[in-house]
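Notes from the pairing session

We agreed to fold both candidates in a single pass and log them together. This is the raw record for the first candidate, unedited. Please don't reformat it; downstream parsing expects exactly this layout.

Candidate A
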Amino acid sequence: MADKHTSGDGRNDYIGSILDPKICSANACSEEEAEDPHLWPRPLARKWIPTLFMGTCLLLCARMVMPVCAVSMAASLNWSKIDTGLVLGGFFWGYCLTQILGGHASDKMGGERVLFMSATSWSLITAATPLLGHMGSHTAALMTLARFLMGLLQGVFYPSLASLCSQRVVEGERGLLMSTMNAGGNLGMLLAGALASLLLDRYGWESVFYASGFLSGLWAFIVWRCFLKGEVAPKPIQLSRDSQHVSLMRALRFLTVPSVWAMVFAHMCISSTSYTLLSWLPTYFEESFPHAKGWVYNIVPWFTAIPSGIGGGCLSDHLINQGYRVSYVRKFMQFLAMGASSVFILLLSGAVTFPSSLIFVCTAIGLCTFTSGGVTVNVQDLTPSCAGALFGFMNMCGAFMGLVVVSLSGYLIEVTQSWVTVFSLIVLINVTGLGVFLIFGDARRVDMDGHRKMDVS
């Protein structure tokens, strides 16, 4: 392992990070973090990781229940396409509103408690949704309200995860945690489809909501009984109201720091392109390969994303623990997520067969999951004291940009009658976001008192 280099502010070390990445051991770089009493002990961390994995799985399962049951619900409740669109779109607006507030609350009161309250609330709403379908003639309006509330409550989940990770997990293990959580989300989408397949035709769409709500409520009960009731979760540092206000204002002020806004911009780009692939790939396969089996292209890519996401987290943490600079690892992982994946997306623009296109899509989506070891966790490197609030902001921006790009893609398909323009747009956004992050991205803390920076990269 190369010798550890130091400098006054770490800038010289950072400039040379790409050429000489292995400059310090992870133990040396995180010695101060290892002494933090608020970090999870290793036995407790091993219990929390699978618990949070299942929580993220059930989060996406509850979120996807409405889309997978939309056709049956529309037929049962006499909805038009416009009604169905309003109901499904209600989630998005609620989801964007609570990102920053959820992250800020987690920074102050502890992410464990916010996750518990969120899961308890969304499980109740999910289980109660069928009741709204039988409360008069304005079912579409009531369902839209339910989806809006669902978005409000689920909007705090991922910012809380980011805050929890920065508060409780050492630097060299954050990539694995966030990658495992994202893999749980992919499993949740598959679980929603499985519940629909088992229950929808036999017991009706209501049973899918009841099952998802019950499983989410069971998870919340387990978290309370096994982790919170016995004061197992470490209590966060108590801050005064003035300190909390200053912390939130500082979190917003950090957006002027080049490394922070580069991270936010890259996250916006990768989020928007991921939303676009999620939204339009089924249509691409259906139109390009009408005789292909739908379950193959609807399940296989997202099933592939589960092991690739966990593998990407293991890779990033392994590189850090081997002594590579954190900034080098974050940029390398983001290069794979946005750069290497774009190559396979661009290959879809040519004349390809169904097996080839499926391989390209699976590879591209698998590589995209590597962002969990890149910009997704980079916020915990830069601003661990307010990681939840900042992650909420960048996640909100990513959701809005995703809406724009998904809509623009639909317009391009309608006007050009070609998928080449959509895939080219995705590649252009990815390359732009990657270039900004490679140039301005960093992993040194910017939230130290007096604007001092600690070289953790």
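Candidate B (folded immediately after A)
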Amino acid sequence: MGCFNKLLIAGAVIGALLAVLGGILIPVGNSIIEGTVNKEAVIEEGTTAYDNWVAAGASVYRQFWFFDVTNPVEIVEKGSTPVVVQRGPYTYKTRYLPKEIVTFSNLTVTFLLPLGAIFEPSMSVGPEEDTVTVLNLVVAGTYSLVPSFMHGVVERFIQSTNSSLFQRRSVKELLWGYYDPILKNTTGLFSPYNGTYDGPYTVFTGRDDIAKVGKILSWRGEETLSFWDDKYCNMINGTDASSFAPFVDKKKPLYFFSSDICRSVSASYEETLDLKGIKVYRYTLQPNTLAAPNVNPDNRCYCRDPKVTKNCTMAGVLDISSCQENKPIYISLPHFLYGSPSLRESVLGLSPNPEHHDTFMDVEPITGFTLRFAKRIQVNMMYGPSKVITVLKKVKDYTIFPIVWLNETAALDDGTANMFKQELFSRVDMLEMLQLLLLGIGVSMFLLCFTIYCVVRSRRSSGKIA
């Protein structure tokens, strides 16, 4: 029996050691995982982050919906309230070109983002030659760009070219450019686009501090913007939203800069979702992002024209004229989501819906990679009343008029999802299984041997008493 007792004690000791080893592996394993992820998240040649960062990546599409004006004659001649009908989507493949002129310097990397758009007929409601009636970009633009005392000149140009407040043009013309008789040049919502670049950007590689990986140091050679008359509004915060620092804390907002809207914004955690077997955190723009300054004081410096925005009390629009050569362009969420009711009262036919019109990002929390996103923006232009310009004489008040809204979107494909799971999660799962296996076997062995030992000791003691 002495030898048997020794075996039981040895088994209990071995079980305890295995349990301790399993327990030790938990913090050690977590440290190994963290170290591996942090190493692979650095933007430098040979890392997973670099391979994904430098390439074009997943297919990105821009879907456009135009606001087709149904009563243009009544608006001009009678001062009727505009009525619009949404037309779309017209879809283009964008961001299909890899970054160019990639230059590493110390702890940063600088690059250019080439721009291009290829029409995708199979993802569109019709050809890009489809025509829609929209606001005349040049007429609306000259109303603001030309001082009111020179509106007589604008009137003569409008009359001599037989132009009006509205125009009918093809989708292709409106997006990428057409010859305008007043301007005597090419104009368009995104003209020029193909063959141009966004940037240059300079971002941190994260080699010295992984918390800074992907954060923008400068854009177009400047560390701050110059569009806004305020230090706070001119800050360039966060990344470009394609990725964030690893081990995302859902209690904290994510910051990113968007050149499309000429400012930095933040997004907050909304919910946890499953994307092709991968856990992701969904982040959405906070409703107060475009709130009026009386609701969100941080937006005071974004109010540039109190006259148009009703003494800065109008919510839901951002005047970006300062970064658009002073053209009266206002950015909003589609259908003026979260905007002041007056915006939808001055133009009828809009139906905002957070599910379809809100911007979101699905971020994998361990790596910080954005695996799915939808950036939704509406482009609007402003015009107002005039006693000189005939096509504006019936206009009663300043109007922020919707022209088009876009959904720039991309999602993880099946192949990349499987590779992502195999490369990252298979190792994490294997380590976690080993931890639990050792802990489980160790605790079981210890309890089993200790229990048998106690039972044997108890019986032997009972036998001696008897």
